[in-house]
Design goal:
The protein is globular, with a radius of gyration of 34 Å. Helix 3 runs antiparallel to helix 4 (about 110-130), helix 9 runs antiparallel to helix 10 (about 285-295) and helix 18 (about 560-570) packs across helix 20 (about 610-649). The protein has 20 helices and 18 strands. The chain has a 6-stranded mixed beta sheet, sandwiched between helices. A 6-stranded mixed beta sheet has the order 14-15-16-12-17-18. It has a 3-stranded antiparallel beta sheet with strand order 2-1-4, covered by helices on one side. Helices cover about 50% and strands about 20% of the residues.
């Protein structure tokens, strides 16, 4: 076992976070740790990593195990460049390189026993260096950086100048590059777009060590986890399989536990009634016996019911059929065009998900629609009687210095009682309402903004990453509310499970254009795959056609022979026709080569070495075909010239 945890306990004051937590993780196991916000998941991780942090119990890693850890948020990552930070992410590699170089220099002037001693040390250092895969260290850094969205043009940028979300990704990249034996990740998909998340999934699927992941990303847990640990009510339970299998097991377990608990409570109530009735009468001996049975009874804990917030969007007021109209719209900034030539209409009742890589322009498009940013060209307008409700991932509607209660009293002018009732439904009870908004967690702020959407009574909701910082239970509540909402919805999200539940249309920003998929997320995936499969066939078709219709020039043919053959085989009309075909094939091949070279210039296409090699092979084959066609074109042009000369003579 790589990790053995035995009877771990942690409390803060009189509040017990968890007790008697025990589990084991073997090499190669991939464990998902789930639970509502505040259940103690991050506290458990800290107990695993920090000696003496737990109040009781023990944590034992297998001797020699190298542990990699990425927590939520980010710390100081130094003043050097991104590349320098990554090169130093595993300090042992450069240290071993320096040692190997020194030993090589020492061995040059030694002989006999002294040389043997140096060579023995050199062999020992080399074994460690190979174990850390030091020879491929730079290659591994490039693969991880590209996979997490850091293209080569930013590698020399100071690491400290990146945004908060980018710094979190940098720390994740550093943990992966270390190639640890055991990896602990706390919400690793935060700040990752869908492409990055899918890349991370594949990386972790291939990871050979033990893995413990805290995540609220259900699709991610489905694709990576082989076992689920659930933190609930201060206890930890283990379930075999991925997240979907855990849900099925949990449902059966909950139903069984509730039935057993209800039956035991009924038995206790009847027994206590019997004891009260007969404790002083003729049956007192029997009553005492019943009391002894009751005292020995092992009580079943009441099933845990996590408190859920209430979110019910009001009926959407009537609006025009065309809720959002985008005409010849291009968005971005003065020197940075992000998306161009958008022509789309979102109709009443439609629920569209807006997808695309980080930095592709999703939030910019939303701000352009909202009128916060002027379009570069074209227009974005809403229809008649459309009232917009906006959820910003930066929670701009919340004044950080106000208390929760004051913020709602100021914005909506309601009385204290009504405000407290509404806030209680969003899990802000008692003195919670007097907390300053700036002190709240991301999940708590998200609940406040969602409550404002309810109070706004909008018929067109624009949501920018609404599931960020929400636990799984909260995401399910939000999904249910949006599914029941009878208005129009445009949502930006990287949560594939969430998109699959609520979207009936998908817009995707790709190569500065907006692609429209008129179907749900499953339809979008299927359509993308169909287009991907169709693209190579379209590219290959002109090549096959050219090969079929054009024969390679014959070898060792003299100019006189070529002239005779051209005059014999082609009439002027036929020669002109052949030239036209070859020229068309050359243009087609050159156009496809240009597309391929753009793909090869994208570092993301070199994350997978097999895919990179496939692109290189395709490029070589395409270039060879162009060369062959050019030779054929020159032959035909020469034949044309010779025919022209023959006509003049």
């Amino acid at each position: 076992m790589q990790l053995v945890v035995d009877n771990l306990t942690k409390s803060f004051g009189i509040n017990t976070i968890f007790k008697d937590v025990s589990f084991m993780i073997d090499k190669g196991e991939k464990i998902g740790l789930v639970g509502v916000n505040g259940s103690g998941k991050s506290t458990l991780l800290r107990c695993l990593l920090q000696n003496g942090y737990a109040d009781g119990g023990s944590v034992r890693f297998e001797a020699g195990t190298r542990v990699g850890y990425v927590e939520q948020g980010f710390g100081n990552i130094g003043d050097g460049s991104l590349w320098q930070f990554m090169m130093n992410s595993c300090p042992e590699v450069p240290e071993l390189r320096a040692r190997l170089q020194r030993l090589e220099e020492q061995s040059a002037g030694l002989s006999g026993d002294e040389l043997d001693k140096v060579l023995e040390e050199y062999a020992s250092v080399t074994r460690r260096y190979e174990y850390l895969d030091g020879y491929n260290y730079e290659t591994r850094i490039k693969i991880v950086l590209n996979g997490l969205g850091f293209t080569e043009d930013v590698w020399q940028k100071p690491a400290q100048n990146f945004s908060g979300g980018q710094k979190t990704r940098i720390l994740l990249a550093a943990a992966l590059v270390k190639s640890p034996d055991f990896l602990i990740l706390d919400e690793p998909t935060n700040h990752l777009d869908i492409r990055m998340t899918e890349w991370l999934e594949k990386y972790l699927q291939d990871f050979k060590g033990g893995l413990l992941i805290v995540s609220h990303d259900r699709k991610f847990l489905d694709n990576v986890a082989t076992r689920i640990l659930e933190m609930e009510g201060g206890h930890l339970q283990s379930f075999k399989g991925n997240y979907t299998k855990y849900l099925a097991q949990k449902e059966i377990q909950t139903a069984t536990l509730e039935a057993a608990y209800a039956a035991q409570q009924d038995y206790i109530a009847k027994t206590e009634a019997y004891i009260r009735r007969f404790k002083a009468g003729i049956k007192s001996k029997m009553a005492r016996g019943r009391q002894s049975q009751l005292d020995r009874l092992e009580r079943i804990d009441a099933p845990v019911h996590n408190e859920e917030f209430e979110l019910k969007l009001p009926p959407a007021p009537e609006s025009a059929e065309r809720v959002l109209i985008l005409e010849n719209l291009s968005v971005g900034y003065k020197d940075n065009l992000l998306v161009q030539d958008i022509n789309l209409v979102l109709r009443r009742g439609e629920k569209a998900a807006l997808l695309g890589p980080n930095g592709s322009g999703k939030s910019t498009l939303l701000k352009t629609i909202l009128g916060e940013i002027a379009p570069l060209s074209g227009k974005a307008q809403t229809g008649n009687r459309v009232k917009v409700g906006y959820f910003s991932q930066s929670y701009e509607r919340l004044d950080e210095k106000q208390t929760i209660l004051d913020n709602f009293l100021t914005e909506y002018g309601m009385d204290d009682g009504h405000a407290r009732s509404l806030l209680g439904g969003m899990l802000f009870h008692g003195d919670d309402v007097f907390k300053e908004i700036g002190t709240l967690s991301g999940g708590q702020k998200a609940r406040l903004v969602l409550l404002k959407l309810v109070l706004d009574g909008a018929n067109f909701l624009i949501l920018d990453e609404p599931t960020n910082h929400l636990d799984i239970l909260a995401r399910e509540t939000l999904e249910a509310a949006l599914e029941a909402f009878d208005g129009t919805l445009l949502v930006v999200s990287h949560d594939r499970y969430f998109i699959g539940e609520i979207a009936d249309r998908v817009w995707e920003i790709e190569n500065h254009t907006l692609q429209d998929y008129k179907g749900d997320y499953e339809y979008y995936l299927a359509e993308k795959e169909k287009r991907k499969l169709a693209a190579p066939a379209t590219k290959a078709e002109p090549v096959k056609k050219a090969v079929k219709e054009e024969k390679a020039p014959e070898a060792k043919t003299s100019p006189q022979g070529k002239k005779a053959k051209a005059q014999k085989r082609y009439s002027p009309e036929e020669l002109a026709k052949q030239l036209q075909k070859v020229e068309l094939s050359i243009r087609e091949q050159e156009a496809m080569l240009g597309v391929l070279e753009k793909q090869m210039a994208d570092p993301a296409n070199h994350v997978d070495l097999n895919h990179s090699k496939q692109l290189a092979d395709e490029h070589a084959a395409m270039q060879a075909e162009i060369d062959r066609l050019m030779l054929r074109w020159e032959e035909l042009m020469q034949a044309q010239e010779e025919l022209d000369n023959a006509d003049e003579n």
